[in-house]
């Protein structure tokens, strides 16, 4: 019994529940859209936070139980891409376009660029680097647009951030995966958890943070956005 793996203990029909878990992101995305259509951005991003949690646990479960080989009829990767595009790209682009962050026509221009560049990025087979980082901005628009909504910067700053992220999608610049990248992970993981805690505070308080919390949130965002690029630069200097 000592050589029995967890994957062998689970019957194959039960493994399909992992795909069900991934697919649950679709109705979550729909509920988020309905909330956003009513201008309830705190509710929308609360649902997107739940979708992010689901996305964080379904992949490890699928790998642990070797679902790709044991249920070859169903592509977990394709299913995951569909859900991720909706929750990471399309719905944040909707928030960017439909909220009052940007005036016409910048709301449509920026929203269109987000869904366009995001679609191309999801088709890139070279998006991952050997150390687990992302190559190019990883279409994490749920975090970017959320941050812009909470911090309420000027329209010009918002446009500049969106255009920069769209351009960085195709740049040879690394972006961190908080869990998979081992380098500086003892710092990156706590910063990620801090960012999530502050995001939850903002959602509970109607997408608002006080000055101190907003400052910490900004610093955490800048760290997560640039840490892998800084590591990349250090490697080149060395």
Spans of at least 5 consecutive residues whose pLDDT stays below 50 are: 1-10
Provide the structure class.
Answer: mainly alpha
Give the SSE string: HHHHHHHEHHEHH
Whole-Å distance between the termini?
A: 49 Å
Biggest sheet descriptor = 2 strands, antiparallel
Helix fraction, binned, reads: over 70%
Estimated share of beta-strand residues: under 5%
Overall number of strands: 2
Would you write up a description of this structure?
By secondary structure, the protein is mostly helical. The protein has eleven helices and two strands, in the order H-H-H-H-H-H-H-E-H-H-E-H-H. The chain has helices at 6-9, 12-23, 25-37, 41-64, 67-70, 76-98, 106-122, 141-151, 155-168, 185-204, 211-237; strands at 134-135, 174-175. The chain has a two-stranded antiparallel ribbon. The chain is globular, with a radius of gyration of 19 Å. The N and C termini lie far apart (49 Å). The relative contact order is 0.10. The model is unreliable at 1-10 (pLDDT under 50).
């Amino acid at each position: 019994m000592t050589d029995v793996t967890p994957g062998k203990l689970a019957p194959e029909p039960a493994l399909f529940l992992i795909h069900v878990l991934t697919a649950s992101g679709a109705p979550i995305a729909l509920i988020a859209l309905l909330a956003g259509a009513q201008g309830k951005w705190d509710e929308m991003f609360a649902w997107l936070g739940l979708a992010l949690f689901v996305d964080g646990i379904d992949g490890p479960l699928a790998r642990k139980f070797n679902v790709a080989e044991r249920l070859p009829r169903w592509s977990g990767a394709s299913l995951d891409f569909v859900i991720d595009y909706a929750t990471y790209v399309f719905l944040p682009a909707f928030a960017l376009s439909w909220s009052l962050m940007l005036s016409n026509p910048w709301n449509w221009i920026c929203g269109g660029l987000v869904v366009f560049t995001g679609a191309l990025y999801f088709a890139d087979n070279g998006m991952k680097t050997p150390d687990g980082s992302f190559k190019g901005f990883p279409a994490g628009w749920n975090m970017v647009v959320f941050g812009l909504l909470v911090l309420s910067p000027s329209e010009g700053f918002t446009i500049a951030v969106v255009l920069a992220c769209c351009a960085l999608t195709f740049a040879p610049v690394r972006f961190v995966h908080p869990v998979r990248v081992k380098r500086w992970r003892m710092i990156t993981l706590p910063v990620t958890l801090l960012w999530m805690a502050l995001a939850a505070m903002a959602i509970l308080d109607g997408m608002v943070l006080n000055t101190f919390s907003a400052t910490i949130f900004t610093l955490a965002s800048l760290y997560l956005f640039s840490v892998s690029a800084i590591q990349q630069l250090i490697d080149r200097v060395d």
